[in-house]
DUF742 domain-containing protein
Amino acid sequence: MTSSQEGPWLDDAAGRLIRPYTVSGGRTKPTTALDLLSMVMATGSSPQAHMGPEHSMALGLCDGPTSVAEIAAHLRLPAVVTKVLLSDLVDCGALTARAPRFHANPTDRSLLEAVLDGLRQRL
């Protein structure tokens, strides 16, 4: 039985019906350098090439600047697979990406706690 909340890709008993590497066509290296804290945002232009449903879902999450980590969490996909999907969208002009901006201390505890709080609110 397919879970109504998760769509056709998850089954209540069996779990994920499609392996993550299938979503990325077996690719494990994105063409665009993306970090988990990289921010991506939709450009407003539609992809010219046919993209899979995961590409569409990822694009739908990028109305405003969104981190790669947040998108991976929403899609429930491994970060590397999410990076490949987002890289495809950057390559076709549907997304822009920018490297994370670190303040004076890139391991600032308050910044990391704020990111964690934001991720928890989204789940």
In short: The mean pLDDT is 80. The beta strands are 10-11, 15-16, 39-42, 66-67, 95-98. The first helix runs from residue 20 to 23. The chain has five helices and five strands.
